[in-house]
TrEMBL record:
Signal peptide bounds: 1-24
Keywords, sorted A to Z: Signal
Protein name, as recorded: MetA-pathway of phenol degradation
Length: 294
């Protein structure tokens, strides 16, 4: 039972950062005074998890829902401010029922709070007019969520650690006939505190527009690899978070964004993992509405 409780907790430390990474804008910075704002709902519900060896085991059905605000604002033509704020986060665990007598052996529980928040600045490093655009981002992860909810402390809306991530993006826009498209690759280093292992991250995405640039289709691939330099118990405690550290995965995300007007649009995405260790073995989903103030 202790191991199952640990696995309920393990995946959130990394999954809660995915919505930010999926919106980070590649190597492009916003022009001064322009902005992009998005309110979205992201969720994952899982009855299975990836083990520390990459296998899949069952667990009590557990889920997380994040309602969040994401924003980018052009401070200068080269410098962009970015914020990701989950203003409502809910994590739940279903009740457990005995298969022999039908009695409830463990009641269901839920925790509601705000979630861990990211603030960042992105700086354009390439010359104006370059075919390839290059940018560096400094991100601070603020532990505003709850990392010890529920009767056993395993329900989380955050991981309880303050992290600092440096990321570099290289992007280029291009055309395929009449279709406008772009590509982006990135690499990042995530320095984590509270005895969590640091992480190396990398990934890429391609996007293409249709219907006179009203509809965009996007495919992303992200990788997280633990440097295995933290404690076996991420918070230095005896077992309750022993599997919350050293999460790894190679994931994919499909996203569609539709501009209903020049500024207002809607988006939806679906994400999963090609391979993973210590995360939920179920897909994630999101829907959102955005304002693109060019």
């Amino acid at each position: 039972m202790e191991i199952l409780n640990n696995y309920k907790k393990l995946s959130l430390a990394i999954l809660l950062t995915i919505p930010f990474l999926a919106s980070a804008g590649g190597g492009w910075t916003k022009q001064k005074g322009t902005a992009y704002y998005k309110v979205s709902q992201w969720w994952v519900v899982a009855a299975k998890h990836y083990t520390g060896t990459g296998g899949i085991d069952p667990n009590v059905t557990t889920g997380t829902f994040n309602t969040s605000f994401y924003g980018e604002y052009g401070i200068t033509d080269r410098l962009t401010g970015i914020v990701y704020f989950p203003f409502f986060s809910r994590t739940f665990r279903n009740e457990q029922v005995s298969g022999t007598n039908g009695m409830v052996t463990s009641p269901g529980e839920a925790v509601n709070s705000i979630g861990d928040t990211d603030i960042a600045v992105k700086y354009g490093l390439s010359k104006p007019g370059s075919k390839f655009v290059f940018a560096g981002t400094l991100l601070l992860g603020l532990p505003l969520g709850k990392n010890d909810g529920g009767s056993d402390g395993s329900l989380q809306t955050g991981d309880g650690e303050f992290n600092q991530m440096v990321r570099f993006d290289l992007s280029r826009s291009f055309s395929i006939g009449k279709i406008n498209a772009y590509g982006n690759i990135y690499t990042a280093f995530n320095n984590r505190t509270n005895n969590f292992s640091d992480e190396f991250r990398a990934g890429g995405e391609v996007g293409a527009s249709f219907l006179k640039n009203k509809l965009w289709g996007i495919v992303r691939v992200d990788m997280v690899e633990s440097l295995q330099n933290g404690l076996s118990s991420a918070e230095g405690s005896s077992g309750a978070t022993i599997f919350a550290n050293n999460t790894e995965f190679i994931s994919y995300t499909y996203e569609a964004a539709y501009y209903a007007t020049d500024k207002l649009g809607f988006s939806a995405s679906y994400g999963g993992a090609f391979s993973a260790k210590l995360i939920f073995a179920s897909p994630s989903y999101s829907v959102g509405v955005f304002l693109d103030l060019k």
